[in-house]
Write a structure and sequence with these properties.
Elements (H helix, E strand, L loop, with lengths): L2 E9 L3 E4 H8 L13 E3 L7 H12 L10 E5 L10 H8 L7 E5 L5 H9 L6 E7 L8 H5 L3 E9 L4 E10 L5 E2 L8 E2 L2 H23 L9 E4 L6 H8 L22 H10 L7 E7 L2 E9 L3 H9 L6 E3 L2 H7 L19 H6 L1 H6 L1 E5 L5 E2 L17 E5 L5 E9 L9 E8 L4 E5 L13 E12 L4 E10 L6
Parallel strand pairs: 2-14, 4-5, 4-6, 11-12
Antiparallel strand pairs: 1-7, 1-8, 2-3, 6-7, 8-13, 9-10, 12-13, 15-16, 15-17, 18-19, 18-21, 19-20, 21-22
């Protein structure tokens, strides 16, 4: 059976920072940014990072897929939260995958995701390939205007693929167009014309030409050219050299999402597949200390996956609060008040013992009474037998809940006040007190349907550890 892409998932944060708000604050110092003060870029909330965004993309990607069949999960990112902890391992726990899967972190280059995808396509096993980035940029810089946040996921293997892998080519050249040393917050970029002429045109352009020649595919046969260079007009120039029609070049999505780093090639590929038709050839090209080029051919299976993924796409929310953006990026120090002075220590013993509860949101269901409870305990509630060991694992993360009661709290500290939380009741049983996320005033009331999302709960700044848990967000009708 052919190897290729079986499914995809795409996650773009709801808030879209208006570039005009960045310019309006910084134009006294950087008036040259005026030409870039158009459109918006996707920004993650304070409780989102590369791990949490990857979890969302993975959930969408695996909708309808038997998770026990997944052989490995890999996460590509240049902004991994942990240097010495398996970030993909955290994702594995949140996605409730088997302990027998392998996990891998990929980093060090903006083409880490395409290199990961190319490697996964060499075998028949089901591999979950995820990419996510949440990069920081200096205030009043070109990068601040451009950088956006997002995650994408692809499930690869053999079977009823939606896009058959035809082959590809990879080059590795230590071309330093930009870099970020270990421990640094910001990228250092070289002059744009040098990068365009010596990097994009010579390295990426030649790799595209070589790949098509080796596969005996002419440029005219390419229906969609996903050339992940977030610079205006450059993808079209590279396509022309390879004989690819200009109207086949995919939109780089800079006006609405921004440059999402490692994620960008997979994000563009997912968005291209959403409107592709069966039997079309799709070229994917990415750049970063070399180049990767992959070619696919879509199949009849694509339409069903596209229809499923369409239900997950959410409309963006325009955001002009530039100060909040800086605070959430750790670039604006404000007086948090005494109520923020809490010890957020996470004992490793309890996290290890309760990892399924904390990271996977696994509750319990009594095999005798059918009662669902969270957290799972040795003894089931609402039973007279008081026999231990009757509770079976019962995943709650993908179950819809409704609000029974809630509070908007401005007394307790929250990085995004007011802090919303309340009691929620899951369909099929089980209830818990949960924090709410991504809430705007008036968006929640008693009876509102909610879905669970994996987020950062708090930061242990004393020990450099971030704690993850599940929060609830409204299911918004009319989102597209």
């Amino acid at each position: 059976m052919p190897s290729g892409i079986l499914s995809y998932g795409l996650y773009i944060p709801r808030r879209r920072l208006q570039r005009a708000s960045i310019y309006d604050t910084n134009k006294w110092f950087a008036p040259g940014l005026a030409g870039m003060a158009k459109g918006e870029k996707a920004i993650g909330n304070w409780d989102e990072d590369s791990v949490t965004m990857a979890v969302e993309a993975g959930r969408y990607c695996m909708d309808g897929i038997d998770r026990s069949s997944i052989a490995s999960v890999s996460l590509a990112s240049t902004t991994l939260p942990f240097v010495d902890r398996s970030n993909a391992g955290i994702v594995k726990e949140a996605l409730n995958l088997s302990d027998n899967v392998s996990s891998h972190d990929r980093t060090g280059s903006l083409r880490a995701a395409t290199s990961l995808l190319m490697q996964s396509l060499q075998g028949d096993d089901l591999e979950l390939c995820l990419a996510a980035d949440r990069r920081k940029a200096k205030v009043a810089s070109v990068e601040e205007m451009n950088y956006g946040d997002a995650a994408a996921g692809f499930l690869t293997g053999s079977g009823n693929v939606i896009a058959k892998y035809l082959g590809g080519r990879s080059k590795t050249i230590d071309f330093v167009d930009h870099y970020r040393e270990t421990g640094a917050d910001f990228d250092y970029a070289w002059e744009a014309r040098f990068v365009r002429d010596e990097g994009y045109q010579k390295i990426l352009g030649s790799t595209i030409v070589d790949a098509l020649r080796e596969l005996a595919i002419s440029g005219e046969e390419i229906d969609h050219a996903v050339i992940a260079v977030p610079v205006k007009a450059v993808p079209q120039k590279l396509a022309k050299v390879a004989g690819i029609a200009p109207d086949a070049v995919a939109d780089i999505s800079m006006a609405t999402i921004g440059d999402t780093g490692v994620t960008h090639p997979l994000l563009m590929l997912a968005m291209t597949l959403q409107h592709a038709k069966p039997g079309e050839k799709v070229l994917l090209a990415s750049f970063g200390q070399g180049a990767d080029v992959l070619v696919f051919e879509t199949t009849e299976q694509l339409q069903a996956v596209n229809e499923r993924q369409a239900s997950y796409l959410r409309s963006g929310l325009a955001d002009s609060n530039y100060a909040r953006y800086l605070f959430h990026r750790g670039m604006l120090e404000i007086d948090k008040g005494m109520r923020a002075e809490l010890d957020e220590k996470q004992p490793g013993t309890s996290l290890s013992r309760d990892r399924k509860t904390v990271l996977g949101l696994i509750g319990g269901r009594c095999s005798q009474t059918g009662v669902v409870q969270f957290p799972k305990t040795d003894l089931a509630v609402n039973t007279e037998s008081r026999i231990s060991g009757t509770l079976e694992d019962y995943p709650l993360a993908d179950r819809v809940a409704k609000v029974l009661s809630f509070t908007a709290d401005r007394l307790a500290y929250s990085p995004d006040p007011p802090g919303y939380y309340g009691m929620i009741d899951f369909e099929g049983g089980g209830r818990m007190t949960a924090e709410f996320a991504d809430i705007e005033e008036g968006e929640v009331e008693v009876g509102t349907q909610m879905r669970m999302v994996f987020r950062i709960k708090s930061f242990d700044e004393l020990r450099g550890f971030r704690k993850y848990f599940w929060k609830a967000i409204p299911i918004r009708r009319g989102d597209c």
